[in-house]
UniProtKB/TrEMBL annotation:
Pfam families, alphabetized: 1-cysPrx_C, AhpC-TSA
Gene Ontology CC, one term: cytosol
Top-level taxonomy: Bacteria, Pseudomonadati, Verrucomicrobiota, Verrucomicrobiia, Verrucomicrobiales
Domain of life according to the entry: Bacteria
Biological source species: Persicirhabdus sediminis
Keyword Plastid: no
SUPFAM superfamilies: Thioredoxin-like
Stated name of the protein: Peroxiredoxin
Subcellular location(s) of the protein: Cytoplasm
Length: 209
């Protein structure tokens, strides 16, 4: 597993569904450079079971991300047409109707590969025949990218394990607190709590409270 933290986030250009019903081509990550933070998350498949709980939870928290200047983007290896159909299906029938943030179609698996969240791999035998080991779908990867396009946080869960939206928001808050105040955020830090100056004295002062 590659560690992308501290590195430039791999850019991409792919089809995506935006605003819940519009298919656009050449959706890129670089369009947000200098303008917004990006929370890019990968999920395995449309029309599954854990995935809609996560995608709908991100939508419910979308206002919290937006007021922090964060663009939420979902991505899976399904086609844009699969995304569109899922977005037109009501939640009580297994769909994700009502989601408005972009969902990218990584049909060629290149985005998942670049972010090193692709489960399964191509294998070539001695005769040059290519097969696939596992299934070429994305793990539950999550990447927080700053306005300069640098990955500041990454998290990758195996397929059965859903993520925490509140932890994603907490991580955004911690990054922005550091950027604005120069203070580092200790374990379980929450917005509004005391943080620490990055020094031995700062740690001592924090621990003495």
């Amino acid at each position: 597993m590659s560690v992308l933290v501290g590195k430039k986030a791999p850019n991409f250009s792919a089809s995506a569904v935006v605003e819940g019903n519009k298919i656009v081509e050449n959706f890129t990550l670089e369009q947000f450079l200098g303008e917004k933070y990006v929370l890019l998350f990968f999920y395995p498949k449309d029309f599954t079971f854990v995935c809609p709980t996560e995608l709908i939870a991100f939508q419910k928290a979308l206002e919290e991300f937006e007021k922090r200047g964060v663009q939420v983007i979902g991505c899976s290896t399904d086609t844009e047409f699969s995304h569109w159909a899922w977005l037109q299906t009501p939640p009580n029938k297994g769909g994700i109707e009502g989601i408005t943030y972009p969902i990218v179609a990584d049909t060629n698996k290149t985005i998942s590969f670049d972010y090193d969240v692709l489960a399964g791999e191509y294998v070539e035998d001695f005769e040059g025949n290519v097969t696939v080991e596992g299934e070429l779908i994305a793990y539950r990867g999550l990447f927080l990218i700053d306005k300069e396009g640098i990955v500041q946080h990454q998290l990758v869960n195996n397929l059965p394990i859903g993520r925490s939206i509140s932890e994603a928001i907490r991580t955004v808050d911690a990054l922005q607190h550091f950027e604005q105040n120069g203070e580092v955020c200790p374990m379980n830090w929450q917005k509004g709590e005391d943080a620490m100056t990055p020094s031995h004295d700062g740690v001592a002062d924090y621990l003495s409270k």
